[in-house]
Amino acid sequence: MLTKKYITELKYRGNGDIAKLVQAQRDVGTIVFILESLGQLPSDFHADFLYSLLSHNHAQVRLNAVKNIGKLNEKSDTKPLLALYQHESDTSVKREIVSSIGRQRKCINKPILYNFLNDEDPKIVCQAIRGLLVFENDKEVAEHLKPLVNHKNEMVRTVIYKEYFAKEKTKKDSLPHAETYDFLKNVVVNADVLEALKYVPDESVHLTFTSPPYYNARDYSIYPSYQVYLEFLDKVFQETHRITKEGRFLIVNTSPIIIPRVSRSHSSKRYGIPFDLHPYLVKNGWEFIDDIVWLKPEASVKNRIGGFMQHRKPLGYKPNSVTEYLMVYRKQTEKLLDWNIRSYDYKTVEESKVADGYETTNIWKIDPCFDKVHSAIFPVELCKRVIQYYSYKGDLIFDPFGGSGTVGRTAKSLDRLFFLTEQEPKYFEYMQSKQKDSQLFKDRKTNFFTLDEFKNAIR
Fold first, then answer.
1. Residue 263: what pLDDT?
2. Taking residues 188-205, what's their average pLDDT?
3. The pLDDT value given to residue 377
4. Domain holding 275: CATH number?
5. Which of 396, 442, 394, 391 minimizes the C-alpha distance to 415?
6. Positive or negative CA dihedral for 234, 239, 245, 250?
7. Strands of 197-241, DSSP E
């Protein structure tokens, strides 16, 4: 039986035995297995057979041949690769050819890579950019790459912007990334969120998790039109973007809603809130990361399928809505996640690690919660997962629509800090009453402020 161990042994013999092994095969799968098992190639490797495989009729064989030729670095021959590129129909093979030429790190290849910058395939352009960036501080390379900041593809623009145009932030008064301001720690403000956020400094929040009020579905969320509703949320999340630390997360829990019909002669109206809100968030600097589906038991939701169950007539199908969306966004940055993680000390990172039993898919099966005071509260389990997966101990968690305060209570139980705003007095008072009942809240004081009291606390 052919094994990776045997292929490795042949590879280091240096007498062309790998070539003989490949030539003896008639099965494409076996040839691909051999090529994928080669790993790092020794300096005396006999590579002629790889070039002969460039004319193989199976694309996967050609791709792996090109990939291994790329491992030869400065010893690889560019001409056969370019010849293949001219008539190659498989895009994966073409991309690998560009990558292989780039890995040679030869100055003589720069004009070839410049030509690839004009390709219609943005992945080929990115591979060419990658190959050219190894020539650091090369003015000629920079002259070819900088104009691509206006390229029609967003990935190309992002790479070029990071390499040539991004500037390090040098704010003298800014806090260390892992820290926040004392006057925001464990605070609830009874005020309109937009008014309260006027007094919150830039980059002071680590994570925002919220469920915006549903459009005209509750007494506390009446708007003159759907457009006005979306524009209000747009303003809230613009301000949230401003106060969010670089590269940190926003998770928005929403779902489509139905506005009941006025009479039997009119139709009800369904609004796709998560889908309509998304373009506003992306436009304002939030990068879309994930969609998580919160799945609820069917018995817990309103029955919409009843009419269809009786008549079974096509066009009248209305399924029961058992899902909500947790849309995950990250404040755009050129920095990788590792930069954020390195902002914390070793002890904090270790103590914040997620325990076994974490969810591995984007389908979260969690029962909803019901409360006589607030009709749409977060389940604690939902809050726990979001806070544990997207923050570190000591981080400041923000909820602009605080409601019954579940985000705050859960954050505190997980050794995080919280900052909530809530406009409705009855929910503000409800949160205060919860503090009296909770030993956790007694041990770690929460400050409840009116807007004026919040302003004074800042001074």
1. 66
2. 95
3. 72
4. 3.40.50.150
5. 394
6. negative
7. 205-210
Sign of the Cα pseudo-torsion (227, 228, 229, 232, in order): positive
| pLDDT exceeds cutoff 60 at 218 | no
For position 215, what pLDDT does the model report? 80
Q: Which two tokens stand for residue 13?
A: 């013999």
Of the candidates 166, 336, 331, the one whose C-alpha atom is nearest the C-alpha of residue 243 is 331
Q: What percent of the chain has pLDDT over 90?
A: 71
Domain presence at residue 342: no
Residues in a beta bridge with 271: 257
pLDDT at residue 419, as a whole number: 97
Q: What is the pLDDT of residues 60-91, one digit of tens each?
A: 999 999 999 988 877 788 999 999 999 999 99
Give the number of C-alpha atoms closer than 13 A to the C-alpha of residue 339, restricted to the C-beta side.
10
DSSP H or E run through 292: strand 286-295
Residue ending a domain, among 165, 197, 231, is 165
* Average pLDDT over all residues of the chain: 90
Residue 430 contacts by C-beta under 8 Å, 6 or more apart in sequence?
Answer: 373, 374, 404, 405
Packing angle between helix 91-103 and helix 59-70, nearest 10 degrees? 10
pLDDT digits (tens, 9 = 90+) for 123-161: 999 999 999 999 999 999 999 999 999 999 989 998 998
The pLDDT of residue 260 is above 70:
no
Q: Helix, strand or coil for residue 421?
A: strand
Cβ contact 329:292 at 8 Å: no
Any bridge partners for residue 365, and if so which?
295
Q: 412: Cβ–Cβ under 8 A, 6 or more apart, which residues?
A: 186, 418, 440, 441, 444, 446
Identify whether residues 77 and 110 lie together within a single domain: yes
Same domain, 86 and 206: no
Is 402 inside any structural domain? yes
Last residue within a domain, chosen from 102, 130, 165: 165
Helix (H) or strand (E) holding 325: strand 323-331
Range 432-437 contact pairs with CB under 8 angstroms and sequence separation of 24 or more? 434/404, 434/405, 434/409
> Please, what is the end-to-end C-alpha distance for the chain in angstroms?
76
Domain span at 259: 182-292+325-335+364-458
Percent helix, strand, coil in the chain (nearest 5)?
45, 15, 40
CA distance 416 to 395: 5
Q: Quick check: is 43 in a domain?
A: yes
pLDDT tens digits, 386-414: 999 999 999 999 999 999 899 999 999 99
Most distant pair of Cα atoms in the chain: their distance: 86
pLDDT band at 376 (very low <50, low <70, confident <90, very high): low
